[in-house]
Amino acid sequence: MQTANRLGTVPSGNSERWETAARNGIRIHEIFNEARFEEKLRILAAGYKKRFGDLLEYNVEDELKKFQGWREKLTPHCVDAVTFMKAAQDDSSKKILIEGANALMLDVDYGTYPYVTSSNTGLGGAITGLALNPTKIKEVIGVVKGYTTRVGAGIFKTEDLGEAGTKLQEIGRKWACRPVAAADAAGWTLPSSNTPYKDPETGDLIDYFPADLEYLEKCEVVYEDFKGWQTPITSVKEYEDLPKETKEYIEYIEKFLGVPIKWMGTGPNRDDMIFRRKAFNKF
């Protein structure tokens, strides 16, 4: 695990535990084969001991003892994933809802590499991770916040280390994250038009997110100003009842992304939600 310049997610050491790609990881069914589990665990521990030396604080014997008790508790919760998911997908009386945990920019293939997590965080990861039949997927919902945050290191061009960023952390209760610049004297800000970055040498606007992080670091962010609003919107249930400035902000994001916004969260509670019935008629 990196400390001073850690990667893209919370510091849990997940990056160093990703043995699957090395073909020596312990699979779930092997937990229930006591001899095989012990053999593989000792091999893994020996490998990490060579790699990290005295920095590795890990006791194989303690781990094996823990699994003596865990094995029985885990048994009723483990199934053959392919068989289980196929049955669920073929059952017309069931609906499957899948929720992702990490944002797309933390995807190991399409994120801000190397400041990423160790798996695919997008739709592809859900398909392979859950043995889903892609043709069974009926709807894909992208979830975004009204302002962007980031966990860990990595380039974050719109990060605000000043008063506005601190205020956003307080309101959004996102103390483990780095906040984006989202408010100024004129109100709310967002990268403008379809071209949020400007080439550092030519000054030309670019309409893509650069994969070259050195190039991205040199790019200039282009903003568009919006009028803010002071009216609380937590109790609002209908889109038409939102302040004019709020609707302008939302509709600009729709235009910028080219996708409809169907739901809007207005507070921390489950029912703090606005559903736009006419959202898809515009696209």
TrEMBL record:
BP term (GO), one: IMP metabolic process
UniProt pathway annotation: Purine metabolism; AMP biosynthesis via de novo pathway; AMP from IMP: step 1/2
Gene3D superfamilies noted in UniProt: Adenylosuccinate Synthetase, subunit A, domain 1, Adenylosuccinate Synthetase, subunit A, domain 2, Adenylosuccinate Synthetase, subunit A, domain 3
Cofactor note: Binds 1 Mg(2+) ion per subunit.
Keyword flag Metal-binding: yes
The entry's keywords: Cytoplasm, GTP-binding, Ligase, Magnesium, Metal-binding, Nucleotide-binding, Purine biosynthesis
EC number(s) on file: 6.3.4.4
GO molecular function, a single term: adenylosuccinate synthase activity
Cofactor(s) recorded in Swiss-Prot or TrEMBL: Mg(2+)
GO cellular component: cytoplasm
UniProt: GTP binding residues: 265-267
Function: Plays an important role in the de novo pathway and in the salvage pathway of purine nucleotide biosynthesis. Catalyzes the first commited step in the biosynthesis of AMP from IMP.
The protein's name in its UniProt record: Adenylosuccinate synthetase
Organism taxonomic ancestry: Eukaryota, Fungi, Dikarya, Ascomycota, Pezizomycotina
